[in-house]
Design goal:
heterodimer; A: 76 residues; mainly alpha; 3 helices; B: alpha/beta; 3-stranded mixed beta sheet
């Protein structure tokens, strides 16, 4: 994944209905670019059968683990 | 008892009012006296409602005299970040756009505190639309740190951190989307609890990022945070993301010893490039935990830079979406930095946004696996103590985002993972600035963090120190 260029950002902002100047687009590119780079290792690698709600599933599983851990520590 | 009721903790003043050793009027007047003294210096309050507060205090005292105690916080005066809707009240959200916005509903968190008997002192300053980590606000001026007036408070719950530290309110609600409770807690020397995503209803709280926003308290101790969390947590039909199920007894957790618990210290990232004084205080805090009987182990966490990046992408898109109408109709009414940051969201493709959301489950799973053997992880909240207001006033300059990233790099990964984190005062720099450490827990395990935080606070007195009005 590559960081978007100012030219691409200007086009995207136009499509979003919030047009920005070339100067602002350049500033956005510099500002958000590092986040694209930070996420680059993950982008395009996720398995097919994965949806955002998996997060809630993992959270719920953690909650159950907490209960078990608490019970064990209390019993010690 | 302290001669100034305002210097008491939340739990102490609530008990004193219930036992009638302090009246609600005395507690309220004491806070108002301190507000009158400090507000010109701190700019911590957005609105001060002295007459209404005293009238409410008198009513609370009258009810108590008749044997009618509304709840465990009967007659306790509080003020909160000005983004919690209260029907009939102006809620500015720290913005020009909502300068005259009158809420028609009351937020669930606020209502639950009101149901427990609290009364309203006014509202507290904040970063514009909660989108700023320093405490600057181009519409209402910066909030000042009571430990050093030329220093930032941190944000976005800037007024909450400043007011609790100066003992102007016994506690305050904040919100944490990228560090907005923990940063002011760290910089101002108070205790702040970022709750698990879903622990407290966000209904009636101004949104910034629906996937990251959390509600939580800033207070003087872990015990005070436990009391407030217990009152606010739980399911809410107005917010389907607020989880159902019984709410743990958080106050009981604060009385538990920590002998035999295991606390992890990250081997990297959170210990890299620290200011030497922050590094010293981390070491000292770990030493206290050891003395109290905790086992200390090193933990290797997954790459936190990826989490930080993912958090930034999610936040940018969701904030831009919430603000799109005003970005079109009223861009001139935003402060320069907030406008700049909202515009960042326009640059992120939908597919990228959804990839960050899809990765959240596996990322949380990997984190939980990495901390499987520990009860909590300890880490600094920020790599430095409070910088000056002048040096952090970067507005919308080209290096603004890098300054923001530097301050928030230890807090954002936690928001992306939706984890709870308790920031506690852990020491002071040689220059007298407070430094906080965060205890990071497993999802919905706030009780463990409060247990460890309370044990640390029994062993130290950093949370009891009060800034002097020099």
């Amino acid at each position: 994944m590559t960081r978007p260029t100012a030219k691409e950002i200007k086009a995207m902002a136009d499509v979003a209905g919030v047009p920005v100047s070339t100067e602002v687009a350049e500033r956005i590119a510099n500002s958000i670019g590092p986040a694209f780079e930070g996420f680059a290792a993950v982008a395009g690698t996720l398995p097919f059968d994965l949806e955002p709600a998996t997060f809630i599933v993992v959270q719920e599983a953690a909650k159950m683990t907490n209960k078990e851990t608490t019970s064990k520590k209390a019993a010690q | 008892m302290n001669t100034e009721p305002a210097l008491m903790s939340l739990t102490s003043v609530a008990k004193a009012i219930a036992e009638k050793s302090v009246s609600s009027r005395e507690a309220t007047q004491s806070c108002l006296d301190r507000i009158a003294q400090w507000q010109p210096r701190l700019n911590a309050f957005m609105a001060i409602e002295a007459e209404a507060a005293l009238a409410a205090a008198d009513a609370a005292d009258g009810a108590l005299a008749k044997g009618n105690q509304r709840g465990v916080l009967h007659g306790v005066p509080l003020a909160h970040k000005d983004m919690y809707y209260e029907a009939g009240k102006v809620v500015t959200c720290g913005s020009k756009i909502r300068r005259d916005f009158v809420a028609t509903t009351t937020s669930t968190a606020l209502q639950r505190l009101k149901d427990a008997g609290t009364i309203r002192l006014g509202s507290l300053q904040m970063a514009e639309f909660a989108y700023g980590p320093t405490g600057h606000n181009s519409h209402y001026g910066p909030v000042h740190n009571p430990w050093a007036i030329d220093r930032i408070t941190g944000g976005s719950s800037s007024g909450s951190g400043s007011a609790v530290a100066a003992r102007l309110t016994f506690a305050a609600l904040g919100s944490d989307t990228g560090g907005s409770i923990r940063m002011p807690a760290h910089f101002c020397g108070v205790t702040g609890l970022k709750t698990t995503y879903g622990r407290i209803s966000r209904a009636g709280a101004m949104p910034l990022s629906q996937s990251l926003d959390t509600v939580g308290p800033l207070a003087r101790s872990a015990e005070d945070c436990a009391l407030l969390l217990g009152l606010m947590a739980g399911a809410d039909p107005e917010d389907p993301t607020a989880v159902a199920g019984p709410v743990p007894d958080y106050m009981a957790a604060t009385r538990e010893p920590i002998r035999g618990l295991t606390v992890g210290v990250p081997s990297a990232f959170y210990v890299d490039d620290l200011d030497p004084e922050v590094a010293r205080i981390l070491d000292e805090t770990v030493a206290v935990l050891k003395r109290e009987g905790a086992d200390i182990v090193q933990v290797e966490l997954p790459d936190q830079r990826q989490l930080t990046a993912a958090c930034q992408l999610v936040l940018a898109v969701e904030a831009a979406a919430f603000h799109k109408r005003w970005l079109i109709e009223r861009p001139q009414d935003y402060g320069p930095q907030v406008l700049m940051r909202l515009q960042n969201g326009l640059a992120i493709p939908g597919v990228t946004y959804l990839e960050t959301m899809r990765w959240r489950g596996p990322a949380l799973s990997a984190h939980l696996a990495a901390v499987a053997g520990v009860d909590a992880v300890i880490a600094p909240v920020a790599p430095v103590a409070a910088p000056t207001i002048a040096e952090s006033d970067v507005g919308n300059s080209p290096d603004a985002e890098s300054v923001i990233q530097r301050l928030t790099r230890f807090t954002r990964p936690i928001n992306y993972l939706g984890l709870p984190s308790l920031s506690i005062p852990a020491g002071f720099t040689r220059g007298g600035l407070p430094v906080g450490m965060q205890l990071i827990g497993r999802s919905f395990d706030e009780a463990m963090l409060l247990r460890i935080g309370a044990a640390l606070q029994r062993a130290t007195d950093f949370h009891e120190r009060v800034p002097k009005f020099a």
